[in-house]
Amino acid sequence: MTKYSHLDTPFIDAVKAYVDKNRTAFHMPGHARSRLIPEQIEALLGKNVFRYDLTEVEGVDYLHKAEGVLKVSQELTAAAFGSEQVFYLVNGSTVGVMSMIMSSVKPGEKLIIQRNSHRCAIAGITLGNIIPVWIQPEMIPEYQILAGVLPETLQKTIDENPDAKAVLLTSPNYYGMAQNMMELIRIAHENDIIVLVDEAHGAHFPFHPDLPTSSIDRGADMITQSTHKSLPALTQTALLHVNGNRIDYDRLTAVLSMLQSSSPNYLLMMSIEASRKMMSQYGMDLWTKAMDTASYAREELMKIPEMQLIDESVIGKYGIVEWDSTKLSVLTNSMKYSGFEVEHLLNQQFNIEIELAALNNILCFITGGSTKEDVDHFVKATRWLSENKGKTNLKEFIRIPQIPFQVYTPAEAFSENYDQIPFKNADGQISKRIIAPYPPGIPYVCPGEIITQNAIEMLTQMKMDGAVVQGIDENEMVEVITS
Question: How many domains, in total, are found in the chain?
């Protein structure tokens, strides 16, 4: 390690050196090192991307047994982010969250889990045959957004479940709101509980002091980050950071090997390494630019009459202690449109794609790649929408229902017999599947839980306003347990 710096890219260098040998290929992939490419794809991407699409050949190491350049690359990335060890992920943060859960909690044991966790956590609980103990975060009523878990809420949950083995927290949330991780981690560790953090939306935090503090620096045991969400790595890339001595490394590597592809994509891993180098070299300037661009956007948007934005006013309330100012969130109530309607209008009339639409807000991501010209285009479109109001009067729904009663664990529910019935008639039935608006993929009903009339009304309204709800099919049917 001493001969390498953060500006070095040993993995990329090794892959390039191998490609430059131009060896005759009698191995996977089937495109034979760019000699057999579908015409349509070659016209779009060219040949070079296929030349670097390798399998585990001599000199380029193997993700599931990294001993050479990949090992060094991961060590450099861990150092850049401030963790003790890191694993490259090619199946997204999804596989990171699932691996954290399944390596920390054994079948039949309890995991304390924040209710606004991503749906992939339910998959990990199901595969691991783990008992979830849900913990409800605070809700911001004017935004209808779940925010942070209060330390006293976590302490009460631990007191009621002293046999819990780990806690899974999500910070920041989709909107960049970070909860009091220092205190939450302290409480968990004092009770000998492993802390897992879904920090998918915080991979950029280590690279600027004005961004929220990463849970890596707060002392969490394992942290998953999506390098493709805010860093310039390819979609499907992520990192799993490990700190301290509470983690069973052998179990973790075994779980990763089971859940990740045995043929990891080398282009994806190269993009992780290149992003690490870029952040090490230019991260401070890039995120200063991003925050300046976001600040400019908010200044221009607030010149529009009746405009409402989600901003730093959330800090100090609802369990939130920090906020990522690169998240640009616009409330749509005053425009008389739902967030889903605004998303559609931005797409169709202004050629603008946003990150997320919810019932009463939209969310835009600002990165170092965003420009003031982009912002000006968005502000112009938003001003038009504000001047040409819609006809939607949003009802006062509590968007996130109370945690339903759990009849079966997710693993038990997975194996139960089921039938399909109209969602509107599902009150009191036990759900077979996750029912969740996507994005963001936060479950309203989990497998094995009772579907309530409240959830039916809320989700029906969201679908009417344009939301995509997973777990309800095109015929408005849901799967319910019959046994």
Answer: 2
